[in-house]
Amino acid sequence: MATRRALVKAALALFEAKGVEGTSVDEITAAATVAKGTFYVHFQRKQDVLLEWAAELMEDVDTDTLPDDAPAALQLLGQRLAEQMMNGPRALRGRMVREVVGNSADWMRVLDDRATLGAKIMPIVERGQAAGTIRADMTSRRLSMALTNLWLDNVVGWAERPDARPLPDALDLVTELFLGGAGVDR
Asked: What are the φ/ψ torsions at residue 183 (nearest 5 degrees)?
C-alpha cells in the first residue's frame, strides 16, 4: 500500500504541474522511485491514479457521525463532500470527477470494494423513506444516483469555472433542490 500511495502522490504532483496528458508513466515512476513495471502492478493506466485518489477521498468522507434526520444528514454529507473537494488543486479535482463519471467501468475496477458516494447516500435516503421524510415511490438507488449526479456536476462546475458559486453553497443549494423534489409534503 505504501508503494501505491507513493505513486498516487508523485502522479498528483506531476499532474498539477504538467497536466494529466503532459505527464508520462516514466515520470511518475521516477518521481516515486519505483520501476516502471511497478506502476502497472497497481494501475492499468495513468488516469487510474485519479480514480484511486477519488476512492481515497470518498473513504475520508465521514458518514458515521451524521444526524438521524435524513434531510439534515444529506445536507451535512454535502458539506463534508465540499470540504474534501476544496482541499487541493481545484482544476485537478474537476478532472478527477470527470474520470469517475466518464469511466464507470474503470471506476468500479479501481474502487474494488470501497464505497461510492452513492453507496454512502443510499442508507440515508432509505432512513428518510422509512421515516416518511423522503418519498418512497422511487427506489433509494435512483434517488441516491440523482443526488450523486447533482453533487458531482456541481463539483465539476466549481472546479472548471473560477467565477462559480462557492462549492459549499452550490452543494447546499442542489441538496435543497433535491430534497424539495424527493421530500414528502409536510
From this structure: -75, 165
Write out the three cell numbers for 162.
473560477
CA–CA distance, 159 with 155 (Å, rounded to integer): 6
Residues whose CB is less than 8 angstroms from the CB of residue 185 and which lie 6 or more positions away in sequence, other chains included: none
How is residue 179 written as a grid cell?
A: 430534497
Q: Among 186, 184, 185, 152, which residue's Cα sits nearest to residue 170?
A: 152
Residue in this structure with the C-alpha cell 416518511, named with its chain if needed: 132
Question: Rounded CA gap, 154 and 174, in Å?
Answer: 8
Cα 118 from Cα 110, distance rounded (Å):
16
Report how far residue 57's alpha carbon sits from residue 65's, in angstroms, rounded to the nearest whole number: 17
User: What letter does residue 90 receive in the DSSP assignment?
Assistant: H
Q: For the chain, how far is it from start to end, CA to CA, in angstroms?
A: 49
Grid look-up 424539495 returns 180
Alpha-carbon distance of 103 to 27, in angstroms, equals 24
* pLDDT tens-place string over residues 138-168: 999 999 999 999 999 999 999 999 999 999 9
Q: pLDDT tens digit string along 50-90?
A: 999 999 988 888 899 999 999 999 999 999 999 999 987 88
User: Long-range CB contacts (< 8 A, 24+ apart) of 135-144?
Assistant: 135/182, 135/183, 135/184, 138/182, 143/182, 144/118, 144/119
* Stretch (H or E) spanning 159: helix 140-160
